[in-house]
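Review form for a predicted model. The reviewer records the input and the model, then writes brief findings.
Reviewer: anonymous (R2)
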Amino acid sequence: MREVLLVTEARGFGGAEVYLERLARGLEGYAPVLAVPRHPALDAWAERLRGEGFSVHARSAGWRGMSALIARAAGPDVALVHVNLPSTYDGWSGGLPWVLSRWSGKPVVVTEHLTALPRSRRRRWVKRRTGSGVRAVIVVSKAARAHLLAEGLPPDRVIAIPNGVPDPGPPVPLPPGPPFRIGVLASLEPRKRIDVVIEAVAACPPPRPELHVAGEGPLRSELEERAFRTGVEATFHGRVEDPYAFLSQCHVLALASDLEAMPLSILEAMAAGRGVLASALPGLDEVVVEGETGRLLPPGDLTAWTETVAGPARDRDRLRAWGAAARLRYTAAFTLERSVAATAAVYDRVLEEAG
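Model under review:
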């Protein structure tokens, strides 16, 4: 079977790595090999994948590690290289696809998740110069595709494939309440703006909602302190192995980020039959339908978030309607099988064009 080398440039485990693992599990017609950097935040993940029978190439830092990666990509069984970039296809990471294409001789596909990060003139230059080594750039939304086309990438090389998540089965009914439980499923990092959700809950008239936060990150202690200081009843669960079990105990998911691509947590909430409160960002409006599957709120607008959390988001009939519509939207457009099949179709096309 033809091998596809799945290369990650991450230095931590997040949504982009979940995307890559689920892709590896779902591929048909290709044997996935995962190239994972040697890093304390990723070593346990690599070992788990090995234990489950996946082929894993542990990539060391520096030129020796790069040479070994190029040699693995150039191996006779590798048909194609897929580079998964959790942030931007620019800078040094943007040069990696070109290096692998140039020195391995294999066609290269890139997934770029966060296309909206600011770029300097140098980074734009790097993108245009190295783009010739990439046969296809996969992005997760139409908005991201438009962004890269504006950067000068050829339209025929940029393909929008929405993320997909596994189906947890029929949704669990909403938990009883009060208390009303708001769930946050995200890395605890600045761009996720979990502080906005905490402050919105703090500003609600009693009885206040409970806040349940699943995830890890550098801001955990700061967010715990903020919740305590503002009197918010918040439980920080850390990283959860089963997002659907977590979501089943919540009435609604909240994600107040000021920068996103297509977060898996929103799709998981929809698959679980839960409505979503999200920032009105490009790409998220392709997932959340305003007023139908939840609400799209101005990023950072504490007044809007407070009014929604204090009012419509606590209406059980509305929550049921949002959840039912969200589940239907998930099954129509955001299943894992649909996303993996579309990605495999890109591989097929690229290999056919490469001869």
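Findings: The chain has 13 helices and 13 strands.
Further findings: The domain at 3-164+335-354 is CATH 3.40.50.2000 (Rossmann fold).
Recommendation: see findings above.
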